[in-house]
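Notebook, bench 3.
Goal today: get a predicted structure for CENPP protein from Rynchops niger so we can plan the truncation constructs. The sequence was checked against the plasmid map this morning, with no discrepancies at the termini. Length recorded as 190 residues. Pasting the sequence as submitted so the record is complete.
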Amino acid sequence: MDNNICQVYEDEIQLLEEEIKLLTEKYEDIQQESTFFSDEEILMSINSLQKEFQGESKGNESPSDLKAQLGSLETDLSFLMKFTGIQFRSHSKKTVEKTGNRTVQKHVLSGNCHSLFFQLEFQLLEMRNKESVSAVISDLNIVMESGENSDVSKFVSSAGEHGNLLTFFRSLSSYAEWCEHRRCTFLHFK
């Protein structure tokens, strides 16, 4: 009986140690991201936030204007989701490297298009110069549920090799829409 109780406590201790380890890693990631900003940048951000709270910002946009803009953006997003069938469920971003004019971030994005689930993992390299910002996607990894849609795997691997997200989303939207039409047609005849 005592051995069972000891085992339960040991299992609980192990779970707590693993949770502590995960929280420590998360804390270190947050600390790493915060060290990318200089003291001057942090002070400038604090000052601009204080000005906004005091109403001294240059925008002078009222809360009703901001609510109207938010409503308009939500309407546009809803339209795009209905139009393309793509709905994003989760997104996470981690800054891997940041120097003066170069930033590398790792993104993980998941969602579905009609009835097809997808998950994307990629790195985004942003290069800034005085006039513009250029972005390059690398290490694109696309994961999709296979099963009855195994014919799309060749396209997915090709899109992953070329790193072209726009082509992937356009093709996914079209493919998923026709899969949905096909499914409805077969349901009609059953």
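Residues 1-51 form one domain. Strands lie at 86-98, 102-113, 116-128, 133-144.
Flagging this for group meeting.
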